[in-house]
Amino acid sequence: MPLDIVTIPCLSDNYAYLAHDAATGATAVIDVPEAAPILNALAEREWRASHILITHHHDDHVAGVQTLAAVTGARVIGAAADAHRLPPLAERVREADLIRVGLAAGRVIDVSGHTMGHIAFHFAESGAVFTADSLMALGCGRLFEGTPDRMWESLSKLAALPPETLVYSGHEYTAANGRFALTIEPGNAALISRCEAVAKARAAGRPTVPSLLSEELATNPFLRARLPEVKAAIGMSGASDAAAFAEIRARKDRF
Ligand code: ZN
Ligand code: FE
């Protein structure tokens, strides 16, 4: 049975998620920017947090972990590579490790680049991947610690998941990401219509997450760095995929 997934807006533009296994009542919380909205969302549904899954060490993803863990007794799980700078972990995981949430199983994917040690959680049977600040809706995280090559490798792993996978990312940056994407591919019809849909959703106060991986493949300029037409559009025909990605990421940093 697929997990029931709830999107919880936190702080000014962060998202946390609940992933609930109805068969057992197990509920994972993915990232804890702040505890209060998550405790409210759990209480509304009479769910109890059994697991806290941390994607990376940035404060806007972990600030509420200790409060939430203390109140709920949830088991805190994060990257072994980041254990020294995460809240205390009950379980340290690395690439390809399996996390069980009730009957559901999530696979850890190392998606280093935004930070070294950033991980994503892929629940294949639920068709869901929690990517935080690696692959984002129409964008990707800024490279604070990793090289462009490393981030390209991380994004390539996510791009290889089934295209019907829903991507649950960490921030509501989609409208601004769309404005940048249009500077790379102003003639991309799928991108133009997606930007219109994003504007509508935001005007109505709706989140633009999750997004379908197939939509990202059709519109996200960072995933599309490998395409000859995108390399041509940035004046880099014949360049490696990672070099084209690096150029697009550099342009976004200046945008
Ligand atoms: Zn971050
Ligand atoms: Fe963040």
Q: What's the number of domains?
A: 1
Overall radius of gyration: 18 Å
CATH homologous superfamily heading = Ribonuclease Z/Hydroxyacylglutathione hydrolase-like
CATH class: Alpha Beta
Mean pLDDT: 98
| Helix-strand sequence | EEEHEHHEEEEEEEEHEHHEHHH
Terminal-residue CA separation: 43 Å
Strand order of the largest sheet: 1-2-3-4-5-6
Looking at the structure, the CATH topology is: Metallo-beta-lactamase, Chain A
Per DSSP E runs of 2 or more residues, the count of β-strands stands at 14
Would you mind describing this structure in some detail?
The protein is an alpha/beta fold and 255 residues long. The protein has one domain: Ribonuclease Z/Hydroxyacylglutathione hydrolase-like (Metallo-beta-lactamase, Chain A), CATH 3.60.15. 34% of the residues lie in helices and 24% in strands. It has nine helices and 14 strands. The protein has helices spanning 36-45, 59-62, 65-72, 148-159, 174-184, 189-203, 213-219, 228-233, 241-254; strands spanning 4-10, 14-20, 27-30, 51-53, 75-79, 91-93, 98-101, 104-110, 119-123, 128-132, 135-136, 139-140, 166-169, 211-212. The chain has a six-stranded mixed sheet, covered by helices on one side. Strands 7-8-9-10-13-14 form a six-stranded mixed sheet. Strand 7 (98-101) and strand 8 form a beta hairpin. Helix 4 crosses helix 9. The radius of gyration is 18 Å and the shape is globular. The mean pLDDT is 98.
Please describe the structure with a list of short key phrases separated by commas or semicolons:
six-stranded mixed β-sheet; binds fe (iii) ion; globular; 34% helix; binds zinc ion; alpha/beta; Metallo-beta-lactamase, Chain A; 255 residues
